[in-house]
Amino acid sequence: MTALRFGDLRQYSDVLRSRGGHAVTVRFVEPRDAEALQNYFRSLTARSRHNRFLGATSELPASQLEQFIHIGAADRFSVVATMLVDGHEIIVGEARYAFEDGSIEFGLSIDDRWQGHGIGKALLKNLECRAASFGADRLFGDTLRSNEAMIGLARKSGYAFMPTPGDWRLVRFAKHIDVEPQDIPCASRRLAALSRQATMSSVAV
Question: What 3-state DSSP class applies to 121?
Fold first, then answer.
């Protein structure tokens, strides 16, 4: 794929629904989100940050935050799940995924205050759509064996489990993606088409 730059990333957003029917917008992270995203990670409980980054951390290092807010570089993408609360957009979850050799590797987190509302399940389903739209046939992630919430979510979503190569602390969950192009509802279908056009144009030149 090709690193992509967009004048208006909002056109590639998806609107999901929480279990209670609340609208949850999934959109690409933009540079303007740097402070809000950092504050989001700081607001997570120590346990949630430990589960997300597989170790103790109080916030994202500056270099890693920089990677989060620039989409498409090295075929890596970051999205935030947001809701309107009292007229203000707040981040209630995030995910980062990378495309490599026909597979998508991902990690995600949900704000502790919004866990149990079905947002994680909806976001995971959206990631499967995004993976399929780029032609990936497999989606996988690694998590700590003690991360019961993520393991439970993956199990309910039909993922298979296996050891993570080279790290006994982790377990890998993976799922074969079998979605026909015409059945892809997410905005990433348009993004993938744009990527293919950009690639074909560069080859033609």
Answer: helix
